[in-house]
Specification:
It is a single chain. By secondary structure, the protein is α+β, with helices and mostly antiparallel strands. It has one domain: 60s Ribosomal Protein L30, Chain: A (2-Layer Sandwich). The chain contains two helices and six strands; from the N terminus they run βββαβαββ. The protein has a six-stranded mixed beta sheet with strand order 1-2-3-6-4-5, with helices on one face. β2 and β3 form a beta hairpin. The chain is globular, with a radius of gyration of 14 Å. The two termini are 14 Å apart.
């Protein structure tokens, strides 16, 4: 069974996408940027601050799915500048603790205006 996850506690997509999809025991969260859910503006020019905002937004979406950030098993991170990775890693290590989720990092040319980073998330939450 596939179910759409939608909440006001995450950024409402402006494109024809879902905030997240539950497929069996997995939650797939669409790519998130560091936007404030209320103002829809990027919270800072700093990648660390954008990272923290992204995971605040992700937490809201995951809560709507009945799980938490501790249920994340994989993150895919898109950087507009791979030189920002060390700043990202510092913020990331404040959010997660071992065992860390599996992760990929990819450098790309462009994301949304003002965004330096976008993160897709996969969480695992067994349905009882």
């Amino acid at each position: 069974m596939i179910e759409e996850i939608q909440t006001i506690n995450g950024v409402t997509p402006s494109a024809p996408i879902s905030q997240a999809i539950r497929a069996g025991d997995f939650i797939f969260v669409s790519g998130q940027t560091g936007r404030d859910p209320q103002t829809r503006t990027i919270v800072s020019d700093d990648v660390g601050e954008q990272t923290k905002q992204i995971f605040k937004n992700v937490s809201g979406v995951l809560a709507a799915a009945g799980c938490t950030i501790d249920d994340i098993v994989r993150n895919t991170v898109f950087f507009t500048n791979m030189d920002d990775k060390s700043t990202f890693d510092k913020a990331y290590s404040e959010i997660f603790s071992p065992p860390y989720p599996a992760r990929s990092a990819v450098g790309i040319k462009e994301i949304a205006p003002g965004a330096k980073i976008e993160i897709e998330v996969t969480a695992f939450t067994p349905q009882n």
